[in-house]
Structure formats: C-alpha cells, structure tokens
Amino acid sequence: MMGLARRSGGDPLQHDPRILATLMQSLEASLQDVKRVLVYVCDQSDGKQEYRHKLFGLWFQRHNAGRFVRHVVAAANGLYASVIYSKNNPFTSELEDSLPELTNKINQ
Predict the structure, then answer these.
(1) How many CA atoms lie within 13 A of 46 on its CB side?
(2) Between the CA of residue 76 and those of 38, 42, 47, 48, 49, what are the distances in Å?
(3) Is 7 exposed, middle or buried (0-12, 13-18, 19+ CB in 10 A)?
(4) Are 75 and 48 in contact (CB under 8 A)?
(5) In sequence order, what DSSP letters do the residues of 41-69 get, joined into one string?
(6) Are residues 38 and 31 in contact, defined by beta-carbon separation less than 8 angstroms?
(7) Does this model's pTM top 0.70?
(8) Is 38 helix (H, G, I), strand (E, B) or coil?
(9) If we measure between CA atoms, which residue out of 82, 54, 89, 53 comes closest to residue 68?
(10) Cα within 13 Å of Cα(23), Cβ side
(11) In this structure, what are the phi and psi dihedrals at residue 38, rounded to the nearest 5 degrees?
C-alpha cells in the first residue's frame, strides 16, 4: 500500500510536482511485469477523494503514452477506485470481461 502526502507548509491547493513524478515512477515499477494488475482507491479521510480521482485521471491521460489501460470501477457514493494494467497484459480479454462484474460488486 502506498500513500503520498505533501510536506507541511505552502498552499494546500498547489500541486507538489514531486507527487506526479512519484506516482508515475511507482506505476511503471509496479507494472513492469505485464501480468500485474494495479487496483487503487482514493483516500477518503479528508473528503477529497473525488478531487484526487479526477486529478489522477488527468495525470494518467497526459503521461500514460498509451502503455497502460485504466478502468474506473467506482466513482460514486464517496468511493473512487480504478484498475490499471499494461496494454500488453496477456490476460487483457479476461480482465475486460470481468470488469462489469467487479464494478457491480463494488458499487452495491
């Protein structure tokens, strides 16, 4: 499990550029084995989970370069979660077939 927090001080609405770099490095390292699948849930402790979800989605879109696939499996009722895997994952078809069931179970 990984968590990222801004160093104390500074404007809390400003983005720390180190967080983006750390996230992308962690994503690439975690998915070096193309068979791996990463599931993440946005922290809910301070009520900013929707903001985190949207920001990560934007960062992912800008910096992904087509290497990974992201599917949102929860985006309501305070729960924001996604599944990410390599586009070269040999189980892509099975993963995509299972996503609707996973999404339904999470959102019950």
Answers:
(1) 5
(2) 20, 12, 13, 13, 10
(3) exposed
(4) no
(5) E---TTS-HHHHHHHHHHHHHHH-TTSEE
(6) yes
(7) yes
(8) strand
(9) 89
(10) 23
(11) -110, 130
- DSSP SS3 for 100: helix
- 107 in Cβ contact with 74 (< 8 Å): yes
Task: Please state, in angstroms and rounded to a whole number, the distance separating the CA atoms of residues 64 and 82.
Answer: 15
Per-residue tokens: 70: 């992201």
- Phi and psi torsions of 74, nearest 5°: -155, 130
What the chain holds in terms of domains, given with CATH numbers, is 17-106 (3.30.1360)
User: pLDDT for 32-83, tens place per residue?
Assistant: 999 999 999 999 999 999 999 999 999 999 889 999 999 999 998 899 999 9
* 51 HSE (CA, 13 A, CB side): 9
Distance CA 94, CA 47 (A): 34
Say what the pLDDT of residue 18 is.
87
Give the number of residues written for the chain: 108
